[in-house]
Amino acid sequence: MTQTATVMDPLVTRMREFGTTIFAEMSALAVRTGAVNLGQGFPDTDGPPEMLEAAAAALRAGRNQYPPGPGIPELRAAIAAHQRRFWALDYDPDGEVLVTAGATEAIAAAVLALCEPGAEVVCFEPYYDSYAAGIALAGGVRRPVTLRPGPDGRYGFDPDELRAAFGPRTRLVLLNSPHNPTGKVFDRDELTLIASLCQEYDVPVVTDEVYEHLVFTDAAAPHIPLATLPGMRDRTLRVSSAGKTFSCTGWKVGWVSGPAPLVSAVTRVKQFLTYVNGAPLQPAVAVALGLGDDYYAAFTADLQAKRDLLAAGLTDAGFTVQRSEGTYFITVDIAPVGGHDGIDFCRALPTAAGVVAVPTQVFYDHVEAGRRLVRFAFCKRPEILREAATRLRHATFAS
Ligand SMILES: *Cc1c(COP(=O)(O)O)cnc(C)c1O
Known about the structure:
There is one protein chain. By secondary structure, the protein is of the alpha/beta class. It is about 40% helix and about 15% strand. It contains 14 helices and 15 strands. The chain has helices spanning about 20-35, 50-60, 75-85, 100-115, 130-135, 160-165, 190-200, 240-245, 260-275, 280-290, 295-315, 340-355, 365-370, 380-395, and strands spanning about 35, 95-100, 120-125, 140-145, 150, 155, 170-175, 205-210, 235-240, 255, 320, 330-335, 355, 360, 375. The chain has a seven-stranded mixed β-sheet, sandwiched between helices. A four-stranded antiparallel β-sheet has the order 11-12-15-14. It has a two-stranded parallel sheet with strand order 1-13. The protein is globular, with a radius of gyration of 21 Å. This is Pyridoxal phosphate-dependent aminotransferase. Its cofactor is pyridoxal 5'-phosphate. Keywords: Aminotransferase, Pyridoxal phosphate, Transferase. InterPro entries: Aminotransferase_I/II_large (IPR004839), Kynurenine-oxoglutarate_AT (IPR051326), PyrdxlP-dep_Trfase (IPR015424), PyrdxlP-dep_Trfase_major (IPR015421), PyrdxlP-dep_Trfase_small (IPR015422).
């Protein structure tokens, strides 16, 4: 037996690259400096009143014990109906739909269920931070393909780089569209290439579609679920969640839909992570999913107006503003205002401008590609966005 004389880091090796998230550091900075926090992506208004009332009623009606493992039947039925209504996708609520503790658990459980240690997972960078951690927990290896701002301000990728990321050890693809943090919406040609590679290498794909209702009218493409492409339904696990669509990010009610064998594999892992969650919230999310088209249209229009408000402020402040086609986010290049490194820039921004943002380089393996890119969240009340815009316009950025 080895004796440890010094204090060792008790954390398993595979998780050591993950420190405190950048969101925690930047949110603490916002609190300390009184800055406007456009770092973390959560709305500062509540979701639909019908949903909130339904949650309160369910809680008072005693729906406070463990719900069924796969989720309550009325929510699974609502999830299936919602996908039929918006995307013409048919899933059997019994066996092809699983309710999870947010999209985060759905993704983690899917990666843990489908990846053996050493398996490679193809994803795009910048990636949502839980992807890298989920792959690491499974002992997998990430193979990120870089999204880069193109001449039209839209992020894109090199098809050859995507082809080269696939190989004999590829076991899974993780795709997020609409994409956080870039605001990119993958178009049909891009999705067709991804689909053909998944088929050629015979691998399943997890699609993170939490922003499925946040694609703006000037996007290059509408939202196209990968599962709707020929041959893709049977290898796709579609993930979504109530948090973004119904402005309740703290509820953590998500779901995954797909062919029964894949959903069953995810269920077998998920049951030992949380088993179940959010009993009184589940009937409320079922109510929200069934809201009329007017709710969804107003929600998208509201966020688009907020994007426009912030985009104008960022342009006036001198940044190169990349196109945001969807999500809660917009990214900028800081070079025109004298910025060289997003991390340094974001650490100084609360003092320089009284605003908090997030450097997206922390979501890349190829850090250089994201060195000067910074993300701002626009899911805030107009007066907050106006205040941030004013502050940024009057800021002097150190070079
Ligand atoms: C917010 C977000 C999630 C997490 O969703 P939860 O339902 O809160 O777990 C997952 N993926 C992306 C891209 C997100 O932005």
